[in-house]
Design brief:
45% helix; six-stranded mixed beta sheet; Sulfite Oxidase, Chain A, domain 2; five-stranded mixed beta sheet; alpha+beta; elongated; 12 helices
């Protein structure tokens, strides 16, 4: 790209895509809908940028001088360009043509993982064109206006695509703000995070332990848990690209914690699965969570987390820990864990 503003715009827009994509991956609450709207606007803005500067881009790749002078750099730039277009194409296809998969991976998973793989190339591109970030380029009136026009065009294209999708009543019309498509049948998919497998659970031997930074640690068997019939209507939004709204029944986590009597200084809880998988909730998140043993009036199947799984309306599916057998109250906050589970 010949003009510095285009390099600045590309790097900034892709950075916004990564941040907003991460926010969409880690939040299921409509409070974060603006982040996902910005994610889509930015994607269209990148397409506008490529179209606007297509003559310069193609000219650069056709130049024999460029390939003779820096063949490795040209090859890396070609891979970055191809990858970015593929990421955008995968996202658009998922949003407007409906769910699809390849080699067992959903389109949204392919979209996400390919974007992550491009980060090193984007960092390299940023360093190679760091001259573009000199103040006289960044603060230039012409560059600022060009960037603004690109962003505005992205906004217009996003709105046009959304309205066309609604008018056509296609697959994209029913997707959630996270990009997930509905699963409204009598059952919903059984999914695992990374290496989890459905464990065998002996109902007669299963115990729920509530312990940690509490005055009254205790255990509870399955029969006692199933006496609790608190209910919650909540949407399970899986990062694999589907969502389903169900009626969940079980024990309010706030009531389970009240019985254990957390000590002063309690800052979070750890929910641990029989498989060893775990996630932390803040106390505020725990106050709206349910330890569910039933869904839509039926006892959970083994694949859906029997005998108990977490339900928290504002979290994505990987935080809805299945096969729960321990809740530990911590004297540290919920941030003492990876933002996304590693196992």
């Amino acid at each position: 790209m010949r003009f510095p503003w285009a390099n600045i715009a590309l790097i900034c827009l892709f950075a916004v895509e990564l941040v907003t994509g991460y926010l969409g991956l880690t939040h299921s609450s409509p409070d974060w809908i603006a982040a996902m709207h910005l994610h889509r606007i930015t994607g269209f803005a990148i397409l506008v940028l490529f179209f606007w500067k297509s003559r310069n881009i193609l000219g650069s790749f056709r130049s024999r001088h460029n390939w003779r002078a820096a063949p490795e750099a040209m090859l890396a730039s070609g891979v970055l360009l191809t990858g970015l277009l593929a990421v955008l194409g995968l996202g658009l296809a998922w949003s407007h043509l409906g769910p699809y998969s390849w080699l067992g991976f959903s389109g949204t998973t392919l979209h996400l993982n390919l974007a992550l793989l491009l980060i090193p190339l984007l960092l390299w591109h940023s360093l190679r064109h760091r001259i573009s970030f000199r103040l006289r380029y960044v603060a230039g009136r012409r560059n600022f206006l060009s960037f603004g026009v690109t962003a505005l065009a992205g906004l217009v294209l996003w709105q046009a695509s959304e309205r066309l999708s609604l008018l056509a009543d296609g697959p994209g019309a029913s997707r959630r703000f996270t990009g997930s498509h509905p699963e409204n049948g009598p059952d919903f998919p059984v999914t695992m995070w990374l290496n989890d497998r459905t464990p065998g659970v002996d109902p007669g031997q299963w115990r729920l332990r509530v312990n940690g930074h509490v005055d009254n640690p205790y255990e509870m068997g399955l029969e006692e848990l199933q006496l609790w019939r608190d209910s919650l209507t909540a949407t399970l939004d899986c990062t694999g690209g589907w969502y389903t709204t169900r009626q969940w029944e079980g024990a309010l986590v706030s009531q389970l914690l009240a019985r254990a009597r957390p000590r002063p200084g309690a800052g979070s809880i750890t929910i641990r699965s029989r498989t060893g998988y775990f996630r932390r909730y803040s106390l505020d998140e725990a106050s709206r969570a349910l330890l569910a043993g039933r869904v839509d009036g039926a006892i959970l199947s083994p694949g859906h987390g029997f005998p108990a799984r977490m339900v928290e309306p504002h979290k994505r599916g990987y935080d809805w820990v299945k096969w729960v057998d321990e809740i530990t109250v911590n004297d540290t906050g919920k941030l003492w864990q990876p933002p996304l589970p590693l196992t």
